[in-house]
Amino acid sequence: MKPTAQTAPKPRNFFQDVHEVVRLIPAGRVSTYGTIAHYLGARHGARTVGYAMMAAHTADQYVPAHRVVNRLGHLTGRLHFATPFAMQEALEAEGVRVEEDRVVEFARLFWDPGVELA
DNA sequence: TCGATGACATTGC
DNA sequence: AGCAATGCCATCG
Question: Which residues form the Methylated-DNA-[protein]-cysteine S-methyltransferase DNA binding domain (predicted)?
Answer without folding.
Answer: 13-96
